[in-house]
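Q: What does the predicted 3D structure of leucine--tRNA ligase look like?
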Amino acid sequence: MAAVEATQHALQPANQPVGTMKLENTEKRDTLIASEKKYQQAWADSKVFEQDAPSIKDVPLRSIAPKDLRKKHPKYLAIMAYPYMNGTLHAGHSFTASKLEFAVGWARMRGQRALYPQGYHCTGMPIKACADKLVREIEMFGQNFEGCELNHVQVEETNGHPNGEVTAPAPTQETTKEDVTKFSTKKSKAAAKTNVALKYQFQIMQAIGIPIEEIHKFAEPQHWLDFFPPLCKRDLTNFGCRVDWRRSMVTTDANPYYDAFVRWQMNRLKEMGKIRFGKRYTVYSPKDGQACMDHDRSAGEGLGVQEYTALKLRVKEWAPSAQSKIEGKIPQGGAVYFVPATLRPETMYGQTHCFVGPTITYGIYEMKKGKEYYFISDRAARNMAFQSIFPSWGEYHKVAELQGADVVGTLVHAPLSAQKDGVRILPMDSVKASKGTGVVTSVPSDSPDDYATMMDLVKKAEYYKIQKEWADVDILPIIETPSYGNLTAKFLVEKMKISSPKDAKQLAEAKDLAYKEGFYQGKMIYGDFAGKSVEEAKPLVRQQLIDAGDAFAYAEPEGLVISRSGDECVAGHLDQWFMNYGTPERSGDPDWQPAVLEHVKNEGHEGKEGLNTFSTDVKNNFVRVLDWLAQWACARSYGLGTRLPWDKTQLVESLSDSTIYAAYYTVAHLLHKDIFGKERGAADVGPEEMTDQVWDYVFCRTDQIPKDATIKTESLEGMRREFSYWYPLDINISGKDLIQNHLTFFLYVHTALFSPEYWPRAIRANGHLMLNGEKMSKSTGNFLTLAEATAKFGADATRIAMADAGDGIEDANFEEPVANASILRMYELRQWCESMVVDARILKEDESFAKVKESERHKNNDAIQRSGPKIFWDELFENELVGLVKIAGEEYEATNYKAALKSGLYDFISARDFYREATKAAGVGIHQDCARRYIELQALMVTVVAPHWAEHIWREVLGKKDSVQNARWPEVAASKPELDAAREYVRSTSSNITSAEGAQLKKMSKGKVTQFDPKKEKKLSIFAALKYPAWQEDVIETVRKNFDGMKVDIGAVSKGLPKAESKRAMPFVQVLKRSLESGIDSSTVFERKLAFNEVKVLGEMVAGLKQSVQKCSVVEIVVMDEEWKNGKVVAGSEGVKVGEKREGLPGAAEGAVPGQPGFYFENV
């Protein structure tokens, strides 16, 4: 049990790196979570999220066209890529789920029937591979792995790094590219540090919280399907998701209904010619004996196959060092070929050398016994063994082994090369054994790398231990380009001042330029195809080489691909069934890719509606993928899934059975009551009755009920109604990494199987989720599952932090401090709302706020509320709320949830706080109607993001009968520009005054002379101008000429002003611009009228200013005369005599203009 205990100890939180926040004093959080649980249960009991299409009984099937039914009864169907059931949901899943949640919540508030179904993906290798590993580990160590000793999992470290490679087992969920396979545990201060590597599957299971005595059950794949889906449902429910759980299912043949659905899909695609059979290259796992597609990989997702032309360069004369090492290993008469792999066969006329990596270990492999042998890297030989290049599949017999340095100087014959006497094998340090065959043919006319290396070899022949004449060979021009002439490589190397083959970055750039120019603009000027374009000649030269026996096709993975079983994959040339994706030019279906591309680009024709991607970046990503994505293997022999209907030995690949499952959601609840399809649903249909013809009818591919159908007409029409109502899918929300496979396949299959009316309407791709500004990583402790997040912060605080994390395709950031702060914010806001209703103290006609506040004790003085007519501050507050409702609604509609949260929560609270302070300073208190209006609107503003909090306010505080989940977004009139302007005036004026006072305090603290002593009693005089200075007349006229369509042309205004006036004029221009573009009537602005009564507003502000300015005993408002020298008091604090004249006004008064008062402090 030593290994089990060491792993468990290393996984304990106390022994893990501290990467996430620890919470103290959780009473407020616990109160909110208790409320959340209450409402989650209430929603489940009331089935509020169960949504159905209008019934056949209420609206007969043929009585209305589906599109008209959807218009009459608006609907919204939203899904996310269903998560794989080999672990619990992590924060990345949660982030995608949150976007789906917010979209569905908003749709409900718009009055749509909003459906959020959730399935469980179980198809493919991961579960089976993990289960099989456990079978082996139980055989090795016992049922509870008690036989696994510490030395089996212990890792020695050197300078903090494991000594030797540790191969991770198939991970149970891919969450990060960080190394999650190593943990450390401290036994004691005296004991040495023990590093524990997760080498075994049972340790992985420990890491995700499975008790050791339960792990053996997971050796049976079915147990994974039984165990993890309920946890997914639990976590999403605890998150507050609006899921219709009736429509859930597991994939694979574990659910016979879904199994029938996938069989129908594959049959129809095959009949349409979208699925084909033939030999093709694919990423292949020799260990698993099958294609290794994206979901089958623990590393290398998204990598495809790169095809090359492999040349055969026959050895004419061995270097002496090589000759001695192959002596007796190659039969007399046996021909050895150096085999470089090239992407540019058309350039082979210009071969001058052949390069090898001097430190790379190569092998000579037997191709035809006694006759033909290939000099290549071991990796290349392994790839060729699965491409029918060697005599026996999977076998590659090495007869000799040499270092690259051993063969330098060898003379070989290069097919097509103008060097008829042969070319020499030379050293090239940048050759990699992990790319191509490890042998590189040199064409210095068109390859910047080859030219730079050749020049270096010529200069340093002695250093490289070669004869100079081997490298110093005339370069043959073979391709003419308009930009770089007929020696492209030489031109670019000299132009970019590349001085060494070690200038890797510049050479990579030059290589890219050379290839693009040569391929798209180049013309052959040498060889059999001189005169033809390179694009035209390339396949012709390749075929000529192959036909002559001088070359053959070779392929390899684009990078390192590791299967879930830990196998390094190769490129296999296999007979296989494949989806005929890809452009027609790349042998794809002639009509399929163009139709998808048209849909993505929104180039729909009549009867077609394009795809909304919410982002130009996302659309461009789809276009790029559709350009390079090619045929895709859709079957395998190992794993879980649905059997191919026409070949029972094969299973449908995991990315090929998960393309149109949104269609299955529409009818799942009618087919079965449980996720495994064991109990029939409302339609009372058996899985054997769901024939291909029935699926065609249900999915509106045919109009007549199949003659041999055994299902009741009512049930068939009910299923057809569900599909034709809920489809098309309104939005699919997924991570951006799925654009390269799942989301593109999703589009392909929808366009193939359904009419344009039912093609998807939108895809929203989000970025990856960081945690606290760092990439999530189990090894650093900076990691969070959805269950952990909701337990730690509660559902609403987690959801708020998810909304705050970001909305674009860029990576988002979940900040725990935001979630933690949300707990306090929502708790205090809830208490305030409760107090305003439960503890409300309504003032009587003869009572004042100030007196009641002084004479009575209240926990919350805001609860002392007015009734009766509303005053200036009430109107200002209600108008601001109306404006914020409008803004928040627009942001929700645009799926900008971070911005919607700002307007609908943060700014809403700020508006309330401003109103509270203003009415408190005025000594009048809050109006009870305003308070209730705010509470109701605040609940509605956050219903999308924080539904539990909103439900509590809606039901418990406001006493509403129905759930807030059924509430509608409030319809409000447009905000009044004059009140908007007055509000901004109040805020800016108050801010300017308090800032000026603060500046004097700062000067005093530094010992500088001040205009007044801010710490002593003082008087504040505010100077208001009723007219503008004369110089502004010309400015207004210039702005008037350049105002059109609600926009001011600032550039034209600037040019129209005298330079001498520009400095003082432009700030005034900006004031006019803001007023005009905010919606204030242009005549009001140009006639030099404020949208509000400035003097009246200043009078309303007196009480608040007196309170906010320190030791302010007097506030007076002075209106100036036309000369800006004298004025008259028009308002003020208690004791100020209205009507008194003020002569010889201070300099601060001179800068006042309407809307921008001057002010002056003096001690009294």
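A (community wiki): The structure tokens above were generated from the sequence. The CA atoms of residues 883 and 975 lie 5 Å apart. The domain at 787-979 is CATH 1.10.730.10 (Isoleucyl-tRNA Synthetase; Domain 1).
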